[in-house]
Amino acid sequence: MNYQYITFKNQHNLIEGVVLRKLVINKDESGSLVETLRKDWNDVFDSQNLPFAMQYLSITPQGVARDEDKWHVHKNQEDRFICVSGRIVTAVFDPRVESQSCGKFNLFVMGPQNEDEMFIIVIPQKTYHGFMVISTEPGYLINFPTRLYNPQDEGRVQNSQLDWNKVRDDFKL
Predict the structure, then answer these.
(1) Judging by DSSP bridges, how do beta strands 19-22 and 119-123 pair with one another?
(2) How many CA atoms lie within 13 A of 99 on its CB side?
(3) What pTM was estimated for this model as a whole?
(4) Do strands 119-123 and 154-158 pair parallel, antiparallel, or not at all (unpaired)?
(5) How far apart are CA 169 and CA 173, in angstroms?
(6) Which GO terms describe its molecular function (predicted)?
(7) Nearest residue to 94 via CA among 71, 126, 65
(8) How far is Cα 149 from Cα 147, in angstroms, rounded to an integer?
(9) Which of the 8 DSSP states describes residue 6?
């Protein structure tokens, strides 16, 4: 295996400001229900520091990495990712000089099929991030950003810290 991957069960060495919250899949004969964001979850929602602004869904085919050659970054927004179908690896790199985890990157395996992989992740502002679908079926990701979409807030930065082809090798894609 090329990289070390993080699930909810094996959280270690997290980038400063990254938060994982376990999500519970409630199942019965009528199907499944998962609460994805609640205002009483103070670790992932706070009306002042982690407000709710919007939600979007992205659907990505197997083996595709969003922003493969460049990292995605926000100056003022934090993202909250959940993989609701399929399986993804979310990558976060910390370039923030003032951070105790400057220079570190984390790889999170996310998806609803395994309870240790079903969580919401808070991605701090000014950290670089992207994700890749590692399941055979498309990956469905929902995001609850802390701000409305603003093209002036987001940027792309050259990715020299992570080789997505090594992730493909690790998951035999």
Answers:
(1) antiparallel
(2) 18
(3) 0.95
(4) unpaired
(5) 6
(6) dTDP-4-dehydrorhamnose 3,5-epimerase activity
(7) 126
(8) 6
(9) B
* CA-only gyration radius of the chain, Å: 15
The residue among 131, 134, 2, 3 whose CA lies nearest residue 63 is 134
Q: What is the mean pLDDT of each run of 10 residues along the chain (173 residues)?
A: 94 96 95 95 95 96 93 97 98 98 97 96 98 98 97 95 96 95
**AA identity, residue 165:** N
CA distance 52 to 54: 6
SS3 (DSSP) at 170: helix
What pLDDT score does 67 carry? 83
Amino acid 117 reads: E
CA angle (122 as vertex; 153, 118 as ends), nearest 5: 135
Virtual torsion, Cα 6, 136, 65, 53, nearest 10 deg = -70
CA distance 75 to 146: 12
Domain ranges of the chain: 19-170
**CATH classification code of 19-170:** 2.60.120.10
Write down the residue that tokens 């469905």 correspond to. Answer: 140
Residue 1: its pLDDT value, please?
Answer: 83
Cα distance between residue 91 and residue 75, in whole Å: 17
